[in-house]
UniProtKB/TrEMBL annotation:
InterPro entries: ExbD (IPR003400). The keyword Protein transport applies. It holds the Pfam family ExbD. It comes from Salinihabitans flavidus. Belongs to the ExbD/TolR family. This is Biopolymer transport protein ExbD. Its main location: membrane. One of its GO terms (molecular function) is transmembrane transporter activity. Signal peptide: none annotated. It is found in: Cell membrane.
């Protein structure tokens, strides 16, 4: 007796590829149907804007010197005592690029232990 050749079951990958292809075509068509911006409008350029630190942020220089609102401060308790309750809920630090990471972590930890709610580090991209 001859054995019947078993039909191999095909995987449904062809159907999946077709669905993905149709979705690709849909998004290409939907993206081109959007109205273009008026030709007379020119968009604002922000490349030349100078980013500045927020006025209520703690600025830490490369040598570890801290200033708050332009006044040099020496400790986290001194900073938090001069802040309002709302400002203590979210303390922003603007560190110098050359400040050692260990110093930044120590400052953040001392602010948390002194009673700061949330310590946020403001970066260059966040300023722009």
């Amino acid at each position: 007796m001859k054995r019947m050749a078993r039909k191999s079951e095909r995987e449904p990958t062809i159907a999946l590829i077709n669905i993905v292809f149709l979705m690709l075509i849909f998004f290409l068509v939907a993206g081109t149907l959007a109205r273009p911006i008026d030709k007379g409008v020119s968009l604002v350029r922000t490349a030349d804007l100078e980013g500045t630190a927020p006025a209520d942020a703690l600025v830490v220089h490369a040598d570890g010197v801290m200033t708050w609102q332009g006044v040099p401060v020496t400790s986290a308790t001194e900073i938090l005592s001069s802040m309002t309750e709302d400002a203590r809920a979210r303390v922003r630090i603007v560190p110098d690029r050359d400040l050692p990471a260990a110093t930044l972590v120590d400052i953040g930890r001392s602010l948390k232990m002194a009673g700061a709610g949330q310590v946020v580090i403001v970066t260059e991209r966040g300023l722009k």
